[in-house]
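Quarterly update from the structural biology core.
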Amino acid sequence: MVRVETLIKITTYLCALSAFAAVVRHIGSVYVAGFCALAAVAALIDFRKPAIVPRWCLNLFSVLALVPSALRIGPDSLVEPVLEGLVLLLGIKLLENKKSRDYLQVFLLCTFLLIGSALVSFSIGFLLFFVPLFFLSTLAMMLLACFAADREILLRPVHAAQLLRQSLLICAISLPLSALLFILLPRTDFPLFTFWNKAGVAKSGFSDSISLGDVAEIQEDSAPAFRAEMDPVREQDLYWRGIELDRFDGASWKRGPAPRKLRDKPGVAGKTISQTIYLEPSSHRYFFALDRPVAIYPERIRRWRQMLVWAEDVNARIRYRAVSVTTPSVSEDPIDRDKYLELPPDFSPRILALVKDLVPEAGSFDAARNLLRFLRSEEFEYSLENLPGPGSPLEEFLLDKKRGNCEYFASALGAMLRAAGVPSRLVAGYRGGDYNDAGGYYLVLQKNAHVWVEAYNGSAWVRFDPTPVGLPPGAGENRGVLRIKLLLDTFNYYWDKFIISYDLSTQWSLWRKVKKEIRNPLPDLREVGRKLGGYSPVLPVLVLLALAIWWLNRRRRRPEEILMAGFARRLGKRGFRRESGEGLEEFVGRISDPHLMQRASQFVSEFQDIFYRDGKFTPAEMKRLKSCIRAL
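Predicted structure, tokenized:
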């Protein structure tokens, strides 16, 4: 027997720990330590040393806990301070001498914390906390009903097990209904999660300028940048175009001002590749597509040359579709040659002398291949450590250290091309990606951030990647670990695809499909037969398996049959056999051994009491009656 108050206390603490686990990543370490200390003291009071903390003291603690959180609330930080205040309130509430109302308040605080965690980061991890908290809250409500009637009530283990099963049943029914409501309720384009909080916005792999040395830190970041749903392509075609950088000041590249009138898209010909891209939140307004993008949907995404630009920062997960042609060159004529040949007035004389030695004929496009061959030579080394520092980083890279990451190689080639009289620009984006066969998409991480060069040959821009072959960003990861990461990322992908990206347009498309099926309810029998024919080798096995399960269920004996068979077998070994049609009491009355008859009578009495009461034998009752049989 167990007191219902003990059960509700245990359930309450489990609820509180689940809610705390949902928000622990988003609150400060001081608040984490504060809640742990409060919960530990509360558990000690509840389960070991009963004591009553004065209510006025708890009220004072509550006010003091809310003041710092309230002072930190601002336009850019709204949810986290509220979560920190709620966490401390939950810990203080656990300290109270709890009545029914106090337990309800604890469960309400847990619900608020779970909702708050979704406002900060609505990822698939939300389910890991929602499902157990939903089950525990349901169980707590059922226990609370008993507690409100009589807090001293004792529950037998069988009754506690029944409450547990009923809670699971309620959850099993409610969760599918919740999923149905999610599908049917009208969607809205209002950015609820972004409106309340922008903490989910991640630092992106690039900005509208590249300063030498910045990419090294980003290439160590394994956070997803985006996922591209598409068929696999060749590794050498995995250049994800982001922005063009055309202004160089000697140490950094920037994007020049956009023209007042958008230019017509350059001429691109070839096989098109369609991609559905799920872009993670970032701190910029640029989109990505396989190089070279020729179309983008929705139309709200502006195209300027080969760049895809959003009207505002990408502060929420966005889905869009892009169509690209994988080609290393794109026609464009005419161009502003002076713009793409510009170098700072104080550009390094040492680099100019180096270019003159490497490129005898200025202005020739052959200079691009000569300079590329120079940077790909064994003299230069790809590295993320001990990079050239401020001052003259490009000169130090080319003439002294000769080691750097992709931005050093690209900056060097771009500047040297201009010094050789060849128009050039840098392109920042991502290189590579890992293909997930289970989901049919490329996972591109922040550490895949990359920079390459485009040189103008007189009629088209041609891509050159001077970064050493075999060392793209993110190279060298263990393949076994990568497979596990891709498998786990599949859940995130489908969560984003079917939950986060489920909007009004998707809902309307689903409704059109349903209407089409309603209008054509009868399937093509030949098509059905053709599909079933593919499973013909498996069908006999499935039929035999179904028949075996049916036969086993038919032969399955009920609890009373199992007990009677054991009772008859035990007494048969002692020389007493029950006649056909003979009642149990008559059979026991014929036993000549007084001690054996007494034990047999005890079994018959308990068996009939259960059988004629409701006919249901619980596991505990079965165990007790079997022990009576073994005692015969």
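The chain is about 50% helix and 15% strand.
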